[in-house]
Amino acid sequence: MVPDFILGGAMKSGTTFLHNLLENHPQVKIIDRNMDHAYFDDDRIYPRGKEWYMSLFNGVMKDKEQGKIIGQTSADCNFNPGSVKRILEHNPDTKLIFVLRHPIDRSYSLYWHQYSMGREYRKFEDAIKMEPKLIKKSYHHFKHYSYLERSRYHQQFEEITKLMPLQNLLILDFDSLVKNTLPSINIVLEFLGADKVNDLKELNYEVLRRNPAKIPTNHTVVLISAALHKLGLIRVSRRILNMFRKEMRPPKIDDDMQAKLEQELKNDIAFFDKVKKDFHAKINQN
């Protein structure tokens, strides 16, 4: 039964980076990344049914027969509370991998991603203030504007660990993945049952696809782009935005907002810190 594993999230935490590394391993095959394939974690897609989902793997079944490890990326499995149950009903042996980023950093990164895509036009402080009301408007709003909700790791993984056999669950932190990539990827490969690598060159690390963060430099353009986006003129909106996007770091979060979020997400930050500590211990053991 496929998939053997799923890279389950969390969004804006390095899941794509891990996907790109793993797909270059000779014993691993991951189906193409496509947000339309978010079968388990998107309530709009799940009703398409098991037969539709299995058709996504038609192109890799020969690889499965040859003994390759088959996977998929679907970066909202921690966020949608029904995802893990659906996964286990489909295949109870599926292994789940999550990459977590500091809850505040992840929320802020997602905000800038939505801002640069023309979906968000509010200032960060206003977007956070509006979030509780906004995410209740529709499933679309719930998926796109859940900045803090996606970072509530404590509650999410309390539920996940009740359902998921711990031997089939691996959680690593973003910092380890990007700063200690070789030992981190080897822990992931060992978890999957694949051979470790001696050098990142074996995974084409130097030529790996990367998506540098670009943000709009003109807020008025963002307002115009967001209006076009709401009208359904998404391509026009993106084309305009791309003319004003620049590769640069977002501004630092206001100190008062930082303090407020630290209090708001204190349980989730504590959970993340434990994940980071536990994963560092695994690195030191290898």
Order of helices and strands: EHEHHEHEHHHHEHHEHHEHH
Assigned CATH architecture of the domain at 5-103 and 151-211 and 265-285: 3-Layer(aba) Sandwich
Strand content: 5-15%
The CATH topology annotation of the domain at 5-103 and 151-211 and 265-285 reads as Rossmann fold
The global form is globular
CATH level 1 name of the domain at 5-103 and 151-211 and 265-285? Alpha Beta
Helix share of residues?
40-55%
Cα separation of the termini = 31 Å
The averaged pLDDT comes out at 92
- Please identify which CATH superfamily of the domain at 5-103 and 151-211 and 265-285 we are dealing with: P-loop containing nucleotide triphosphate hydrolases
Question: How is the biggest beta sheet arranged?
Answer: 5 strands, parallel
Please count the helical segments: 14
Number of strands: 7
Describe this structure in words.
The chain is globular. It has 14 helices and 7 strands. α11 runs antiparallel to α12. It is of the alpha/beta class. The strands form 2 sheets. It has a 5-stranded parallel β-sheet. Strands 6-7 form a two-stranded antiparallel sheet.
In short:
The chain is α/β, with parallel strands linked by helices and 286 residues long. It has helices at 15-22, 50-55, 61-65, 83-90, 103-116, 124-134, 139-144, 153-163, 174-179, 181-192, 219-230, 234-242, 255-264, 266-285; strands spanning 5-9, 28-30, 69-73, 95-100, 169-173, 214-216, 245-247.
